[in-house]
TrEMBL record:
Function: Bidirectionally degrades single-stranded DNA into large acid-insoluble oligonucleotides, which are then degraded further into small acid-soluble oligonucleotides.
Stored InterPro entries: Exonuc_VII_S (IPR003761), Exonuc_VII_ssu_sf (IPR037004)
Protein's UniProt name: Exodeoxyribonuclease 7 small subunit
SUPFAM superfamilies per UniProt: XseB-like
Family to which this protein belongs: Belongs to the XseB family.
EC numbers, comma separated: 3.1.11.6
UniProt xrefs under Pfam families: Exonuc_VII_S
GO biological process: DNA catabolic process
Root EC class: hydrolase
Length: 80
């Protein structure tokens, strides 16, 4: 049985969202060194943007399916 390392967009979203929650919790402690806080903030912004792209793609798929369009719409490299 072959196992792939690819995740579905839903799994990827959940993983990213979980990481974003961890980042927020760490930042909310308020007792981080400035450099670490800035690095976490940057990672949080990038993670939030990635989550938003996945949500936008999911919304596009739903609209396409509701319109009876191409049901094989797949996420492409350019979507990321």
């Amino acid at each position: 049985m072959t196992q792939t390392n690819e995740r579905s967009p839903g799994e990827e979203y959940e993983t990213l969202y979980s990481r974003l929650q961890q980042i927020v919790e760490q930042l909310e402690t308020g007792d981080l060194p400035l450099a670490l806080a800035l690095a976490l903030y940057e990672e949080g912004v990038a993670t939030a943007e990635a989550c938003q792209r996945l949500l936008d793609h999911a919304a596009l798929r739903v609209r396409t399916l509701m319109d009876g369009g191409d049901q094989s719409l797949a996420m492409t490299e350019t979507d990321e």
